[in-house]
Automatic annotation (TrEMBL):
Source species taxonomy: Bacteria, Bacillati, Bacillota, Bacilli, Bacillales
UniProt name for this protein: dTDP-4-dehydrorhamnose reductase
Record InterPro entries: Epimerase_deHydtase, NAD(P)-bd_dom_sf
Segments crossing the lipid bilayer: none
Positions in coiled-coil regions: none
Enzyme Commission code(s) on record: 1.1.1.133
GO MF terms, alphabetically ordered: dTDP-4-dehydrorhamnose reductase activity
Keywords: Oxidoreductase
Organism: Virgibacillus natechei
NAD-dependent epimerase/dehydratase domain segment(s): 3-217
């Protein structure tokens, strides 16, 4: 089975690419945009460029495409251009695995099940670019495709297969190593998922030819403060340097409070145990 990982140089994409590469059943290719890839054989591709995208896709002709792409302030371009190019190239036989976000539930009154309605944010909201692009992307996929998996994922953490930690944990370690306190919000509730568990789920879903929409992660939900204190403990730091952050917010910049996920569906579908 030919699998192409778009965003294989990224934090999540690295582990997905490596996990698939180590398995006999998969012939894996991957792409990056700007950053020097850690794997020699990734293709440099701007997914938003129609001609180079089309050339690449026709040459590769994958059976499965994994979307592990993210681009901060340009996330809307990824959906409006990159994802649309991709969708126009997919045949009914080609499967798309799209990594989405818990922010599609941006009303922030979790925990959420997969059937709950998606919410967008007002255009002038601080998080609207990412959130609204993800919601739009999911709607494109639902309208245009039948052979897809959408994985809704909260904050991803842990060491990936290139030895890279998520940025939040890297920052925690930097602060604690220098003996400085660091603060996290106790009122923002999430379902945290380990990067390796996410990569394993993707492999298992491909092996079992599963389709549909899934919230991904363990059954526990935690605040950022609880979770990061736990990480500090786990790595032998004094967690008294981890403090509770102020909960003050500007009204038009409010962060969705509880985007935690009910993950029963995925737990019944795959064997992966979430740590
Ligand atoms: N990390 C999280 O906590 C989290 C949480 C929820 C959902 N997700 C989802 O998980 C997926 C992966 O996220 P991540 O954390 O691994 O992101 P990341 O580390 O920022 O990686 C993003 C990847 O996208 C590539 N890319 C960016 N713009 C591109 C373009 N125009 N054309 C082609 N490639 C492009 C980057 O290439 P370069 O490296 O070369 O720039 C990189 O490989 C995303 O769909 C994201 O929404 C992540």
């Amino acid at each position: 089975m030919k699998v192409c990982v778009f965003g294989a140089s990224g934090y999540v994409g690295t582990s997905v690419y490596k996990s698939l590469e180590s398995m006999e059943d998969f012939e894996v290719s991957g792409t990056y945009l700007d950053h020097n890839p850690i794997f020699d054989n990734l293709y440099k591709l701007d997914i938003n460029e129609p001609e180079s995208f089309s050339d690449f896709f026709k040459k590769e002709s994958p059976d499965v495409v994994i979307w592990s792409v993210m681009n901060g302030p340009n996330e809307h371009v990824l959906t409006d251009q990159g994802l649309l190019h991709l969708i126009t190239h997919l045949t009914p036989a080609t499967k798309l695995i799209y990594i989405s976000s818990d922010f599609v539930y941006s009303a922030g009154k979790g925990p959420y099940v997969e059937e709950d309605p998606l919410s967008t944010l007002p255009n002038d909201h601080l998080f609207s670019t990412y959130t609204n692009a993800k919601v739009k992307a999911e709607r494109f996929i639902l309208n245009e495709l039948s052979n897809y998996v959408i994985l809704r994922v909260g904050p991803v953490y842990g060491e990936n297969q290139a030895g890279k930690m998520d940025e939040r944990t890297e920052k925690l370690f930097r602060q604690l190593d220098s003996g400085q306190p660091i603060a996290f919000r106790d009122d923002l509730i999430r379902t945290f998922v380990h990067v390796e568990d996410l990569a394993n789920v993707i492999v298992e879903m491909l092996e079992k030819d599963i389709i549909g929409i899934f919230n991904v992660g363990p059954s526990e939900k935690r605040s950022f403060y609880e979770f990061m204190s736990g990480i500090a403990d786990q790595f032998g730091y004094h967690s008294n340097l981890v403090e509770k952050d102020s909960e003050y917010e500007e009204a038009d910049q409010e962060i969705p409070k509880d985007t935690s996920l009910i993950t029963e569906k995925i737990t019944k579908t795959v064997n992966q145990n979430f740590r």
